[in-house]
Amino acid sequence: MLELDEPQLHQLTVAETFKRLKAGEGGLSPEEAQHRLSRYGPNVLEESGHYSLIRGFLSQFTHFLAILLWIAVALAFTAEFMKPGEGMATLGWAILGVIVINAVFAFFQEYKAERAVHALHRLLPARAWVLRNNQPHDVPRSDIVPGDVLLIEEGEQIPADARLIETADMLVDLSSLTGESQPKRRTADPVADGHLLDIPNLVFAGTPVLSGRGRAVVFATGMQTEFGKIARLSTSVETDLSPLQKEIAKVTHVVAMLSVAMGGVFFIIGISIGLGFWISAIFGIGMASKIEYPVGR
């Protein structure tokens, strides 16, 4: 957010911290807070957009692999209609079952991921106390900016990443960031070095204060917080395919082209040996369906 090297902020004294963040012990003025809000934006997590259950479920039936399997189903039932008793209907129902089962499991996983993102938002407080012109103000979380001085009490959630400037027997729960259930003691003293989340003079958005109280000056808000980085990972997992997904997509395209080519070859073979148009068509459709079907398994 500000032009500072965040990992070094913990090494500074309280006075040096205020100087680096261009703030004061009495907090920002309302005018300066508004200016920084315009510059850095509101202290909120980006929304991924409204998730439609119906649209999400239907999308599991329209991706490339599903379309291939739908074609295989159509070919199998067409072959059964043209020449009953060859077992093509059984194949068609089997492929249809693969489509439905795959869609249900994929939708369930996607839905759980979406619920996890919404759960992250509930870990942040709606409002917080800050100093403005040396006076405490109860403000919406979205109005908190870098340089604000937070007034932190027991039982509250931290609204933004901040450097502690005063503490009294403060313990925080970092399990939402680190997974560790053991409470962590916080201090305002400078710290030489350490992993960012383990540095005792820093507090992070979305973590609760188990005991004690303190004051802290904000250095990161919104998506720039450690909590925001986790939320970004949760909402951007589908922006690019993994190497494995790319290879699977390539293989799927190759198998699709192979199945069409093989169906055409067997159709031509049937015509050349005098089986007739419809018999040859059934022969080609059946071979194409049998090649496509294993792709979905």
Description:
The protein is of the alpha+beta class and 297 residues long. It has 2 domains: 6-44 and 127-224, Calcium-transporting ATPase, cytoplasmic transduction domain A (Distorted Sandwich); 53-119 and 240-296. Helix content is 48%, strand content 15%. The protein has helices at residues 6-9, 14-21, 30-40, 53-59, 64-82, 88-122, 175-178, 226-235, 243-272, 277-292, and strands at residues 127-132, 135-140, 149-152, 161-172, 184-185, 202-203, 209-220. Strands 1, 2, 3, 4, 5, 6 and 7 form a 7-stranded antiparallel beta sheet that branches. Strand 1 and strand 2 (135-140) form a beta hairpin. It is rod-shaped, with a radius of gyration of 30 Å. The two termini are 48 Å apart. Residues 1-7 and 293-297 have low confidence and may be disordered.
Question: What is the secondary structure topology, with strand pairs?
Answer:
Elements: H1 6-9, H2 14-21, H3 30-40, H4 53-59, H5 64-82, H6 88-122, E1 127-132, E2 135-140, E3 149-152, E4 161-172, H7 175-178, E5 184-185, E6 202-203, E7 209-220, H8 226-235, H9 243-272, H10 277-292
Antiparallel strand pairs: 1-2, 1-3, 3-7, 4-5, 4-6, 4-7
> Main sheet?
7 strands, antiparallel
Low-pLDDT segments:
1-7, 293-297
Helix/strand/pairing category: alpha+beta
Proportion of beta-strand residues? 5-15%
CATH superfamily of the largest domain: Calcium-transporting ATPase, cytoplasmic transduction domain A
| Number of helical regions | 10
Q: Residue-averaged pLDDT, rounded?
A: 81
CATH topology description of the largest domain: Calcium-transporting ATPase, cytoplasmic transduction domain A
* Total DSSP E strands: 7
CATH class of the largest domain: Mainly Beta
Helical content (DSSP H or I, runs of 4+): 40-55%
Rg: 30 Å
The end-to-end span amounts to 48 Å
- What is the succession of H and E elements? HHHHHHEEEEHEEEHHH
Any idea how many domains? 2
Q: Tell me what the CATH architecture of the largest domain is.
A: Distorted Sandwich
